[in-house]
Amino acid sequence: MRTKNVLITGGAGFVGCNAARYFGSRNWYVTVLDNLSREGSEKNLEWLRDGFSFDLERADVCDRRAVDRVVSAKPYDAVIHLAAQVAVTTSVTDPRADFMANALGTFNVLDAVRRFSPETVFIFASTNKVYGKIASAGTHLSGGRYGYTNRPFGISETEPLDFLSPYGCSKGAADQYTLDFARIYGIPATSFRQSCIYGTRQFGVEDQGWVAWFSIAARLKKNITIYGDGRQVRDVLHVDDLLRAYEAAIQAPDKIAGKAFNVGGGPRNILSLLDLIAVLERKLGRKIPLRFDDWRPGDQRAYVSDIRKLETELGWTPQIGVEDGVQQLVDWVDQNHELFEQSVASEAAARLDHKLDGNEAGVVEEAGAV
Ligand SMILES: NC(=O)c1ccc[n+]([C@@H]2O[C@H](COP(=O)([O-])OP(=O)(O)OC[C@H]3O[C@@H](n4cnc5c(N)ncnc54)[C@H](O)[C@@H]3O)[C@@H](O)[C@H]2O)c1
Question: Ligand 1: does its nearest atom lie under 6 Å from the Cβ of 264?
Fold first, then answer.
């Protein structure tokens, strides 16, 4: 017997298709809403269709009528809102499209929940980018990686918000609307400020999804550029651990309503760019040629989430260690490398078109790749 009903916007994306499988395998009714704009989303749908039943709504979250129709159609227990423009770099070149998808799109979904099903748990996939540069967090180099001098547990939710880049602004606005709709309208809504999420079905490109991108590029022998010295550090979280956190939130609406949570691997699951290259070299049994370029303006030496609030509130903790998780991703890329040849080629073509248009972003305010 089906137990719960979940709507996953962006359900054909990396996190979304994994979420659809995860909740589907727990016998929940799954509805996916996606406009299939992301390269790889059609392939993710094919994978989902293989032995799995779900409803697909091909729609854009900017289309208010379509969103209203989908949200009002079923008594959802939860809406997991993932649909978004996801690259900082793209937000710099086309801030309007970024605003529409991320700010207005989120507003449309949230407002539909307010009007049609205010009891529904609403999870917004926010981002650590809402904290901006975090200039007060000092860093130092130790053991070949950067680390914080004054944030031993990482960055907590008490850090001041400082939206930087159009992506930071559009996601940050949506993050704040989510929390405010919980306060003003009593919707059990939460903003999950996600750090770097990685795992299978991620069609990473140079500007977004760096763990997957390095894994794919290394396997296909594509050029890898490291911006900066490669010792910059991020906490990384395997997508299955993220999905367990979503599930825990859906089961405990009172504990999450109106709250923001930093969600990442935390201090126990950190990875530098060069650490990842070393893992890949071990796996492939060869040296990976690297090109080094200037630091991207605004690129943080370190970002590590303080995840104690989520651990305390929901009794959740990451279970998949970096070594195992990265190994699993690399194996998947290895076994499915033909999936990426087309997407890597079209990404390269898009970049070339962009350059020929004279439209190349000279400045990327934040580390798009990391
Ligand atoms: N992956 C990460 O490391 C990470 C980190 C922080 C936050 N996030 C957030 O998590 C969410 C999921 O990220 P992901 O990595 O799965 O991204 P993704 O690009 O793989 O998935 C996003 C999906 O949304 C769809 N989409 C885009 N614009 C849409 C629109 N206007 N209407 C309907 N569908 C639309 C795309 O087709 C795609 O299938 C995003 O909101 C992202 O900002 C991700």
Answer: no
Cα–Cα distance between 238 and 245 in angstroms, integer?
Answer: 11
C-alpha of 189 from chain center: 18
Give CA 192 to chain center in angstroms.
10
Closest CA to 38 of 167, 152, 208, 169: 208
Q: How far apart (Å, rounded) are the C-alpha atoms in residues 165 and 31? A: 32
CA-CA distance, 236 to 197, in Å (whole number)? 6
**Phi first, then psi: what are they for 155, rounded to 5°?**
-90, 125
**Which 8-state DSSP code applies to residue 180?**
H
- Rounded to two decimals, the pTM is 0.93
Residue 300's pLDDT is 85
Q: What is the DSSP letter of 305?
A: B
Residue 267, CA atoms < 13 Å, CB-side half-sphere = 10
Query: Which CATH architecture describes the domain 5-345?
Result: 3-Layer(aba) Sandwich (3.40)
The pLDDT tens digits of the residues spanning 130-165 come to: 999 998 999 999 999 999 999 999 999 999 999 999
What spacing in Å lies between the alpha carbon of 82 and ligand 1's midpoint? 5
Q: Is the CB of 271 under 6 A from ligand 1?
A: no
What are the residue numbers of the active site? 167
Ligand 1 pocket member 284 (CB < 6 A): no
CA 219 – CA 8 distance, rounded (Å): 31
Burial class (CB in 10 A: 0-12, 13-18, 19+), 112: buried
The average pLDDT across 307-324 equals: 96
Contact call for residues 82 and 14 (beta carbons, < 8 A): no
Q: Domain locations in the chain?
A: 5-345
Number of residues that this document lists for the chain = 370
Per-residue pLDDT tens for 205-231?
A: 888 899 999 999 999 999 999 999 999
Ligand 1 closest atom vs CA 105 = 31
- Ligand 1 atom having least distance to the Cα of 12: 39
- Backbone φ and ψ for 139, nearest 5 degrees, come out as -130, 155
